Amino acid sequence: MSETNPAATAPVTADAAPHRYTAAMAAEIEARWQDFWDAEGTYAAPNPKGDLAGDPELVARPKKFIMDMFPYPSGAGLHVGHPLGYIATDVFARFQRMTGHNVLHTLGFDAFGLPAEQYAVQTGTHPRASTEANMKNMVSQLRRLGLGHDKRRSFATIDPEYYKWTQWIFLQIFNSWYDDEAKRARPISELVAQFDSGERAVPGGGTWSALTEAERADLLGEYRLAYASDAPVNWCPGLGTVLANEEVTADGRSERGNFPVFKSKLRQWNMRITAYADRLLDDLDQLDWPEAIKLQQRNWIGRSEGARVDFPVDGEHITVFTTRPDTLFGATYMVLAPEHPLVEKFTPAAWPEGTRDAWTGGHATPTEAVAAYRAQAASKSDVERQAEAKDKTGVFIGAYATNPVNGEQVPVFVADYVLMGYGTGAIMAVPAGDQRDFEFARAFELPIRCIVEPTDGRGTDPSTWESAFASYDAKIMNSSNGEVSLDGLGVVEAKERITEWLERTGAGAGTVNFRLRDWLFSRQRYWGEPFPIVYDEDGIAHPLPASMLPLELPEVEDYSPRTFDPDDADTKPETPLSRNEDWVHVTLDLGDGRGPRRYRRETNTMPNWAGSCWYELRYLDPHNSEQLVDPEIEQYWMGPREGLPHGGVDLYVGGAEHAVLHLLYARFWSKVLFDLGHVSSAEPFHKLFNQGMIQAYVYRDSRGIAVPAAEVEERDGAYFHGGEKVSRLLGKMGKSLKNAVTPDEICAEYGADTLRLYEMAMGPLDVSRPWDTRAVVGQFRLLQRLWRNVVDENTGRLSVADVAETDVDADTLRALHKAIDGVRQDLEGMRFNTAIAKVTELNNHLTKVGGPVPRPVAERLVLLVAPLAPHVAEELWRKLGHTASVVHEDFPVADPAYVVDETVTCVVQIKGKVKARLEVSPSVSEEDLEKAALADEKVVAALGGAGIRKVIVRAPKLVNIVPA
């Protein structure tokens, strides 16, 4: 229907006005100026040095680094919702250039990832071929919008010269460790030196020199910031790959494809992002980000203060983290997550004597019971496992632990309501104070001990309770062992006392815990960056030397990882790279003095997030083949300065959906590179702005199937497709929903400048808004009126009046300077919709006044429009007689004398009712305003000779008279 069919409102051409601004003229103007910008390098941002060094005058200006989030080159191309952020950053970048800044604004492509690989599997087309074709199409679409990108700086993550440095950064992370005392990353060689000299003790005793190569590798793996480990992972058989926690939905399914996800133990690469948890949390305070995004990151990192407590078991121990160590005397059993590595270690061959039947799950041995329960738990999502309403299930593993405060032997269970993803994957269960523990204890007939004095009258006998009692205000009771007593203390004081006791006795310590888990960094995919890692005959991982980078992807015949029955949790990954024997098994000289040796390559690839963790740095120095980025160039564009304490990009615009994925990962990589001295910026993005979404109506037939929106008709408030009534609901725009409108369509009907204006005028940039093609014509008419105010439609010649500013009438000067002041403030604040409204108001004023527009007004009007509609602005600027591009002209500055209103309206009230309105000076005094109000004939008549008890004056806008 008309939302997606502009035909009904397409601009009408007028044969009598051959030089009228039409869609055809817009297309010709836009193509010509885009060619000019490319040929002249208009948007080239000079570096202070290197191959992109340029105009010293530009380099000497304040800099602005403005970025969009990396686009993925989809085969479906762009719809009008995609460029919203790109147009916004372009407008802002153009404004910054015109206000005296050296602006870096460019765009590359995040081109590795699953969609291209899936397309390759379906069609047999190499992922590179389809991705490059998609990029070419997207570049063409974006160029048509007139985006002012520095094209010399563009790249794609699939370029070997780009992912060479992605691999290099991985090796920096692999070859470093986090020094908790220094609070920064350090080269792994410094840790080796500490072990070798004895400055740092080798865990378990012994000396570094006595360790085998494999033992050294295992020890260093406990410290490296990038490490491989056998750990519980999110295995998705339907995709044939493992997923990071952030890629699994709340209901335990894959974010992409919606397949079931299971917990499985596999050897995978991880990034020790948890080492940076405190810094990732604390440094948020210095970033100019939306509070909602900061809150999401804070919640995801999840900092909790409490204590670590060790519960001895057969000469070893189970460690728990608790935020309530003051309730330790109430712990009557323990629970391990099904995935916990200690489950197997502490599970005996036979049930201990006296084991209750309710604890065994009906199995003959603990081993059978635990195996069966683990299989059952693996099929559930984390949300299902933690649901409050579900029945509590579990089995006794056949072992007891010792409660350190009272020596009591407490049974150890495995239960699915405890997750490996939080704390240590083990809990001390205090059923009197936790509802889930309370329900579990009731189900398995376990003791419930009251250790917090209830304040709700329920009494201190838990056998009479219907639920647990938790409070931070109540007093502690039943918590004394002869060495320490918490009885009668409040929670805060009790926590301090028991923590001191735990540390004194070696049973635990005060500590901080985080919800954040290490970042799973392996994918069983083809279309991703290969790991620069090889394994020797003993399975020891060795990094490739920098001289061997980039390690390029080999050609393979089958791009698909092996997928399985989506519901089969007992499967294991098989990667596409593992099937290329000639690539996997190689003889290499790694330059370590051992000469050529036989190695096996890593056959996983990096996740699609890897390339976007550092791309802001490549924009700075895109052709540098010798180093990640030249330090002087990085310092110039991203270094710390006033207002940017951690440095970073000046403005980063993109969707809010990346709050705890890309944004968190990129911050981690930046901090590692900062610690190792490769960059001066500890944060990648100083200011973040989340744009809203352009929505569109989705029409569905009686089957719920989307029908083409362009074919829907509206009749009497209802909607019909092919004679059948259909439903309408506002939602996303997309090809699958059959409601997509492409920018190509709108550009063809109205021109790119009209599309730019419409998207910016639809509403505040951070708010979602519905697309309505019928409304686009309004912005087209604005451009037509602008054109008519400068160009004669019949002759095509300039129609402005060549007069001095002193000859312009006062009303027009006030309208001009108010517009300049308002538009300048709105563009600085990214309030593009209100900026357009002010331009429209000025343009309408000029149209209403009539006659040739004075040149001083016309020129500044064109400059106001230039960031928003650059093509028509360039054309009009040239017609006004200027030879230089409008792109680097100075943005107009308002004269304050004309910004202040000449008069304001003062309302005069009597008994709260308006009786008169006065036009007065904005600077009128209260005394003069009172005199003027009392002398007004309407006020005199309204008072009718009555006396005056009180006059309230709020100059210059209000006088309130209270009669006697």
Strand content: 15-25%
Helix content: 25-40%
Which word captures the global form?
A: globular
Multimeric state of these chains? Answer: single chain
- Head-to-tail CA distance between termini: 65 Å
Overall mean confidence score, pLDDT: 93
Q: Rg from C-alpha positions?
A: 35 Å
Q: Residue ranges: pLDDT <50 for 5 or more in a row? A: 1-14
> How many strand elements?
31
CATH topology of the domain at 30-167 and 610-690: Rossmann fold
CATH superfamily of the domain at 30-167 and 610-690, by name, is: HUPs
Q: Number of helical segments?
A: 30
Question: What structural class should be given to the helix and strand makeup?
Answer: alpha+beta
What's the main sheet like?
6 strands, mixed
Task: Give the C-level CATH assignment of the domain at 30-167 and 610-690.
Answer: Alpha Beta
CATH architect. name of the domain at 30-167 and 610-690 = 3-Layer(aba) Sandwich
Brief rundown of the structure:
It contains 30 helices and 31 strands. The protein is α+β, with helices and mostly antiparallel strands and 964 residues long.
